[in-house]
Amino acid sequence: MRNVFYRSIISFPRIKSAVLAHVSSNRIGDKLKDSGDYMGIIIFNKELDDYSNKYIVTNQGKLPFPIQQEKMRSMVSLCPRLFESLLLYDGLCFKVYGDNFPFLILYKLLGEKNTLDLIEQKAIQFVLWPTAIAHLVSDVAGVNALSTIRHTGLAYTDPEKSLSRALETILLERGKKKWLIKKVRDVCWITEPDSAEESNEVITSAYTSGKMDVFGFNSKSNPINNMPLNERNELNGYANNLQEYRFVLQNNLCSSHDYSHFKMFQHSQSSIKKAEIIKDIFCMINKAENFPDFQKLFYHISDPFNALMNIRNKPSFIGMRKWLSGAVDEYDRDDVLRRYMDANDSPNKSMVQKILKSTKSILMAAAGIGASAAISGITSNATVNVFLNFFASIALDLLDNQLIGSIASGMKPRMFYTEMRKEYPEINGRDIFNH
Q1: Cβ neighbours of residue 355 closer than 8 Å, sequence gap 6 or more
Q2: What is the per-residue pLDDT across 328-345, written as a single tens digit (0 to 9) for each?
Q3: pTM (2 decimals)?
């Protein structure tokens, strides 16, 4: 195996800026809408980048044993959360600071085919962050506790170079490496390099005016140019979070990360917290259906990451994700289960109509020449009820109520649970819900 390229761990937290650089107002959500690929809830994910920054270290060689153990425990807890996110949400946007190790982690965990399938679906994207907010680690009287850094290296500013450097850490033929980079680069973005200064200015102004004192600071006793080291580090953390918070808002994303310290922005909080609401709704439905959540499911399916795409691409689960996204807009925790039961009792007639139309040629062949002529006379805007009554009137045995009922039942959210229990019988054991 080639020598691993290790990225330096610097003494300040990473921050991420807010606006995409290559096109003005080129938001990730809007970009997908314009291309026709936009699917719904896209989640900002920083876990893989945090993991990379912490465990891919400067010096070549083995990590100290305690750090190796911590690294393993961290990955063990990260995997089920990643599995859940890739299933429950329509897409994930991964932040990348320097070399694109988040892609490499996905590539190793999910395998090449699954990773590229997700990229083809625009279900995973990567955003490079060329700037950082730093804090002084030495006491320098009269100097602002926070400052900004702008990286000009290609690993921070060029998606292809960022990918290339990460891929240098695994054995790949040169042609294969170039092929992978070409596949992935179109879902890589770069943030505006000036937004770090903007977030730094906001936090500095808030601290100086005393607005940060509600978080335990004492701006009168410790002015920003004379802060204790532990408070500088903490203030730097708030600057980091503000950067991420602005990025999520400006790019129409959601997040499951905790930005509760910005709770004064109630409208934006409700937008960002859609991810948590979807998870909450799904957990309530799972409990009603006596079905484990996806993090528990991860441990009870053999080769879960290989099964991921099979589950994610199920028409019944695509329908479930769309239903969950719709349920968020009119979220009422006390009313969720009633709405879910109503959705199962009332098939989506418009979807039934679309299915019937899409299978028209098959039905025509099965019904015979006479029925074919009649079917051709149905207008495109006929209602489902008229359509069903028509078939009943000509007594087509192949299109009886049972067939139509099975098509309709496929549009119900509960169909997902039925299919999962049949395909993965190992999840039916009672003890799975207690692990």
Answers
A1: 407, 410
A2: 877 787 888 888 888 887
A3: 0.76
